[in-house]
Design goal:
This protein has six helices and eight strands. The chain is α/β, with parallel strands linked by helices.
């Protein structure tokens, strides 16, 4: 009997800048998550259809990014995939330590920490809900909007996520052990994507911008999203 390992697919983009001068005061990672390839493809088809329809209406052939769309157009794209599971990580920059914000490498490490916590939290919820088993092998694929990332940064993030999910982690500063999540093999793949070629990264851009805008404009309704799991930091 051949056992097929569990598969989970995350798509992420960010909004705002993790910098003390960020006008909204917040940095956001957000995106969509799938445990079924067929559902992933369904979401992609729906977003492509909405994207194509909007491009025709606007007479555009470039990538539709949240930064260059009106609210009603962003809402139309968001609505096309709002029924699917999504995740968000929201950082209140005013509460982040200065030593992190004063150093570019520390900012990158903190972003990785936020992303890792977001992924781990959602996987734990899948297990609690009975969608995943902690006793079966799992492959986790994470697709992130392309950014300036050193090669060693890629490996650090990938290995860090895999090791914490499989073996747990000890925070030596506070003497706290965070237990592992899975009792089987964990494989993590990370791919930095050109958003113009990945429609679910584009959908994640719209989602991240929506949540960031909710803080910038103090419009809480924009972030009341069904099927979404949200973590706040620090």
């Amino acid at each position: 009997m051949i056992l097929i390992s569990q598969k989970v697919f995350f798509f992420f983009d960010d909004s705002g800048n993790l910098h003390r001068n960020e006008p909204s005061g917040y940095f956001v990672y957000a995106g969509y998550v799938f445990t079924d390839r067929r559902e992933l493809e369904s979401a992609k088809r729906k977003y492509i259809h909405a994207n194509k329809k909007l491009k025709e209406a606007l007479g555009r052939d470039d990538e539709l990014k949240a930064a260059n769309l009106k609210s009603k157009h962003k809402r139309a794209l968001f609505n096309s995939v709002k029924v699917y599971e999504s995740v968000a990580a929201v950082v209140d920059i005013s509460r982040v330590y200065d030593y992190i914000l004063n150093d570019k490498k520390s900012i990158c490490r903190y972003k990785d920490y936020v992303l890792k916590r977001c992924v781990k939290n959602r996987l734990k919820k899948f297990i609690t809900d009975g969608c995943l088993s902690k006793n079966e092998d799992i492959t986790i694929s994470i697709f992130i909007d392309e950014q300036l990332t050193a090669t060693n940064g890629y490996y650090d993030l990938r290995d860090s996520i895999a090791e914490e999910l499989r073996y747990g982690i000890v925070n030596f500063d506070y003497g706290i052990r965070h237990p592992h999540v899975f009792d089987a093999d964990v494989t993590v793949n990370i791919e930095y994507c050109d958003s113009s070629k990945n429609y679910l990264i584009q959908a994640s851009d719209i989602l991240a911008n929506r949540i960031w805008t909710s803080y910038r404009t103090n419009n809480r309704n924009l972030r009341l999203i069904e099927n979404q799991t949200t973590l706040t930091f620090p």
